[in-house]
Amino acid sequence: MNCCSNPQCRGIEQIFDDSVARKELKEYKRKGVKKTTRLLLNAVQNLGVKNASLLDIGGGIGAIQLELLQAGVAQVTNVDASPAYSNTARDEATRLGWGDRVSYHVGNFVDLAPTLPSAEIVTLDRVICCYNDMPALVQASVDRARRVYAVVFPKDVWWIKAGIGLANGLQKVFRHPFRIFAHPTEEVEALVRARGFERVFTNRGLFWQVIVYAKG
Ligand SMILES: C[S@@+](CC[C@H](N)C(=O)[O-])C[C@H]1O[C@@H](n2cnc3c(N)ncnc32)[C@H](O)[C@@H]1O
Q: Per the confidence metrics, is the pTM higher than 0.90?
């Protein structure tokens, strides 16, 4: 099933397939969330999540949703371009008894955004780097955030850009449509700040940066 006309979405469907989703769910059950996801979760929880609504864009197997539901989030909207991730997230949430708290939407968030409700908290964990049109993705997502906007994406330093360029070169050689993007941090930040958000948490690791914004 093609989630949209954007070639990157076709790449997403191919790369984030059933076997990847199964492997990630197994890893989450064994080890819990990734280090950067834990940093994002802690920063978001410090801003208050009790009875809040969450819009998790590119939620993958649903780790952020499951963690925040346990922490008191009331309602979740999950949007993912990968049907395999979405199905896996739904099955796991249902198994854990949270199924009725989450609504699932498969497709390109940029296309679906006008049909989706806003939420107090919006998260994009390692999603911005998977989409070519960063301004459209960031604008549409920050427009749906009422209080907190939390993102994890690669730093835009030269050596990461070079590594990503190399990885994309290999994808091209193997005729795989999926590409990775190192979008400029300053451009992401400008779009978020223009909607009245201020940075309240930053963590820069070797590859990823975790940034959480809140509305005053
Ligand atoms: C690297 S995975 C990250 C999954 C999860 N957030 C995590 O950190 O484990 C990138 C995710 O973003 C989703 N994605 C990327 N661009 C998207 C878009 N425009 N609309 C919806 N989902 C998107 C992919 O389908 C995938 O689930």
A: yes
